[in-house]
Amino acid sequence: MKVLVIGSGGREHALCWAIAKSEKLSTLYCAPGNAGIKDVAECVDIGAEDVDGLVAFAKDNAIDLVVVGPEAPLVLGVVDKLEAEGIKTFGPSAAASVLEGSKGFMKDMCAKAGVPTAAYGRFTDADQAKDFIRKHGAPIVVKTDGLAAGKGVIICQNEEAAFRAVDDMMGDKIFGDAGSEIVIEEFLDGEECSFFALIDGERALPLAAAQDHKAAFDGDKGPNTGGMGAYSPTPIATPDICDKIMETAITPLIKTMAAEGCPYKGVLFCGLMVKEGIPTVLEYNIRFGDPECQVLMMRWKSDVLEALQAAAEGRLDDITLDWHDETAMVVVMAAKGYPGSYKKGTVIKNIDQANAIEKAYVFHAGTKADGNEILATGGRVLGVTGRGTSVIEAQTTTYQAVDAIDWSEGFCRRDIGWRAVERERLGS
Ligand code: AMP
Ligand code: GLY
User: Fold this and answer.
1) Whether the CB of 290 sits within 6 Å of ligand 2
2) pTM for the whole thing?
3) Across the chain, which distance is largest between two alpha carbons, in Å?
4) Cα(81) to centroid of ligand 1, in Å?
5) CA atoms 167, 171, 177, 183: torsion sign
6) Which fold does the domain 191-427 belong to in CATH?
7) pLDDT tens digits for 19-40?
8) What does the pLDDT look like over 51-77, one tens digit per residue?
9) Two domains, one topology: 2-91 and 125-180
10) Which ligand 2 atom is at minimum distance from the Cα of 285?
């Protein structure tokens, strides 16, 4: 098979690395890719949001399957356009992608499907939004309806802060049009996890759960980022909780989306809050998480390409998955200053030494090759990944690989996996 992966991050490096192991693969392309991806795929200089360029490339090169990494091309309708040309694609249609593009749509789908989620209201009028806040009291969460680069969620500890958030979003438009409509919801307490399932339009096949670390610094301090590290499996998502998530949050949603005329196909990423064994949905994303994808690919033992192809073709019944028993962990190395402003073009050395460590592998997120040198080009730059028979062992291997890398302009958290490590130390 000839396969094209769309994207250039750590998630796409992990996808390419896993797909490259498939016996079904003849040629793997990645658009646009990065300095790590070019070791496993042929990188093509077409941007991930250049939908017409991507469709033309897929047609000209008789691509058998396109795998879409990030949300932006999905929301732009890349799947619809590829499929109109007869090209099989792993990812949801533009209509189904509204699940991530609009929080109001997502909450209405949950209500129709009976999915457990925080009580909410949708507003286009600031006074009505404030009445809702007065009625429900704080803590309360104010969210932009549209995508706001991961910043459109404000957790408010008192009513004044919530009124301010409403004025910022709707009056001052600090998130632009994304805040023309807002969602206000009940604050949920508990521990967060991410759950992933493959969907073929009708059927759902569970993958695994992972736990991300969104805050920039150790101890979950500092500003929120795209994710500074993750591990899988996670003790918070016991097999029983994973079953509950499939029954209450995945299967009913998929049925409702099909009934509403926007069947879902691709990977469904469900963000949940778990409290006292009960999972409640925070959000759905229409793609693999980044960096959660890196740990899923490290644990996934059976043929990844075969499974993604079956999801794209509506044949998930044919697939059984096989996983490594071990825990996988990824630590993100980011440019100093991220998620604020940071320098680009700094030199990273010794990635080969990190890759030489047994059960470790470095996924590139924001890099480019310049002759023999690897340069940092993004905020999140590397995803250093390791496996071990326990979370503590996975953490030891992963940080050994981190420490092998020589990049004075980078930083990372030193405590990825701390909740699970604490549980392991306590023996529970
Ligand atoms: P979202 O993009 O909606 O997942 O929100 C981003 C982050 O905000 C989540 O990962 C949670 O940490 C937090 N969050 C969102 N909604 C709630 C809620 N209803 N209660 C508590 N925390 C929330
Ligand atoms: N790591 C969280 C996300 O991909 O949205």
Assistant:
1) yes
2) 0.96
3) 62
4) 32
5) positive
6) D-amino Acid Aminotransferase; Chain A, domain 1 (3.30.470)
7) 999 999 999 999 999 999 999 9
8) 999 999 999 999 999 999 999 999 999
9) no
10) 5
